[in-house]
Design goal:
alpha/beta, six-stranded mixed beta sheet, 434 Repressor (Amino-terminal Domain), transcription (chains A, B), elongated, Rossmann fold, 12 strands, homodimer
Chain lengths: ~350, ~350
């Protein structure tokens, strides 16, 4: 007997096609009794569950892959990653696609994982995070012919799909907020310059600082950890001409920087304003609360997942720009006390 | 032609069995050239990749499932979850087992996901997090005959496998530290009483408080969010007889509580000591730094994954107690100023 269709099963079980779909896909919408009957009828008719059937037919694994090449400590410290996953999930669950997820230590292990998944036909496509300069993952991905979407500023290659957010508009908002409060010297504590999005933010920071007539735009590079965020803050505040405002590249470093100001008894926002890139609960619970650039990270993840699923359905690779973040002004930014910053501290 | 074995492929390609295994599983250990040759030979001989082959043979999906039924906001706020995943991954990657991961809104959707995965033969087993009182996931899991390990205090049922940590020893450490500093009134800000582990911690808190001769052990129930952590702290500090120390059930609430003390201008640790259950970067970067109960959450996740994989290899379900956390004394706990706490604030 040929593989039964949903229509065959619906007829045999005396229920609607929709009910069969709900029952066999484990979704709400049918009673437990109906579900049990449909499952029994389907089993008797030799219905083959999806994953095995699709793999056998050489079509779909019904899953996409995501690898984070970061230490567990970095991943757990930055709320960004879990929000990104939640956004990805929101889109996948609509289409009953599974997420296969792995945390590895470096890009070599990441590429090995992609090869293994391809060999096992484990996933149909990949979401590739943290695009970096001269990204050496593009070659292996091409070779594996695995549909992939870069999450973050994608490589310029036309055939590479990606989603990113409009960091220029975001940076402009942040700097205009600070200039509006009278700030003239602003320092940016950036993530690693190897990341594409960090380079973009650095360039925009320099360009817009110049446009707004700010003093020399200084950038300090870090590895995104609280430790380096704190260290950078200390070095900046001890320098001969400390700034009146600091913009951090993530929430973790901003809150760590706030801790340093408390140790040094520097009043925030009286003597120094702080801004975090990416809002999080951490920014809302510190004291003073942290002014932050809030982005819709869930939407960012959902857009990436949706683009990948479209590609699996035969659509061409695209590049999609998601909306810029919105500045959320809180307690950590305030007007410059002019006298305090005319002379070095 | 029958499905070729690794030995057949090794002979045809003129390489070792190990090299074939490395090449086909996408693992390091062979040159790119050898990998390419082995893959070509294997393809010519009709080698069927693992996932499809295993599903077809009705054996293994080669993956285990994990569902978080929490809001994206809670997940991203608590570093616990990503550390747990990292620990799970560390064990899975050793055995080339994939993690299929889904975030859903509630337990109904969680159970629906388990049903769907079972219908699709998507996973071989499940890690079930956040065990709760009268856990209604046990019935469906039994029905699906899906090997499962509960992560956190497992249900008492002999057939249910689980891992948990020794919260009694941890609680004893925390309370002895506070008593050693002269504290007599300690309040616990707990998570939801529906969770098994919260009940266990509540009972231990009451028992050990009594053993150590502390004043009436007060417990305030919350939902683990920063908002309720802050609210509980405010209520506790405004009460007629405020305590000299507060123990929080997670790091997020403890740091939120610290924010409240700063707003109320209550000196920590001069007037009030704070302790967080579960250490995190957040505890290390706030000011003062937060005394915390540090658990090896990665090991907790790895132990759970290892137990599940053993069960998939035919071992019986077990219950495994992982080591107690270790108290990390930092700036947020200090000696009681006796005068300050003899009269209500």
């Amino acid at each position: 007997m040929a593989r039964p269709t949903i229509v065959d099963i619906a007829r045999a079980a005396g229920v609607s096609k929709g009910a069969v779909s709900f029952a066999l896909n484990g979704r709400p919408g049918v009673s437990d009794k109906t579900r049990a009957r449909v499952q029994q009828v389907a089993a008797e008719m030799g219905w083959l569950p999806n994953v095995a059937a699709r793999s056998l037919a050489g079509t779909r694994a019904g899953a996409i892959g995501l690898v984070f090449a970061r230490s567990a400590d970095t991943l757990s410290a930055e709320p960004f990653f879990m929000r990104l996953i939640a956004g990805i999930e929101s889109e996948l669950s609509l289409r009953s696609v599974a997420l296969v997820f792995q945390v590895v230590t470096d890009h070599t292990a990441e590429i090995a994982t992609y090869r293994r998944w391809a060999a096992e036909r484990r996933v149909d496509g990949l979401l590739v995070v943290d695009p970096f300069v001269d990204d050496d993952r593009i070659g292996p991905l091409d070779e594996l012919a695995m549909p992939s979407v870069f999450v973050g500023v994608p490589p310029s290659d036309d055939l590479v799909a990606g989603v990113w957010s409009d960091d220029a508009t975001s940076m402009s908002q942040v700097l205009k907020h600070l200039v509006g409060l009278g700030h003239k010297r602003v320092v940016r504590v950036a993530g690693s310059n190897n990341h594409q999005h960090v380079q973009v933010r650095n360039e925009t920071f320099r360009r817009i600082s110049a446009e707004l007539g700010l003093d020399e735009a200084m950038i300090v590079e870090t590895d995104y950890t609280a430790e380096q965020g704190a260290q950078a803050t200390r070095a900046i505040l001890m320098s001969p001409r400390p700034p009146s405002a600091i913009i951090y590249d993530n929430d973790v470093m901003a809150v760590a920087g706030l801790g340093v100001t408390q140790q040094l008894r520097i009043d925030v926002p009286g003597e120094l304003s702080l801004v975090a890139w990416d809002d999080s609960q951490m920014c809302r619970i510190c004291h003073p609360t942290m002014t932050a650039l809030g982005r819709d990270i869930e939407n960012f993840g959902a857009t990436a997942a949706s683009l990948l699923l479209d590609m699996l359905d035969g659509q061409p690779p695209r590049k999609i720009e998601t909306p810029a973040g919105v500045l959320i002004a809180r307690g950590s930014t305030g007007p410059v006390d002019a006298q305090m910053h005319t002379t070095p501290r």
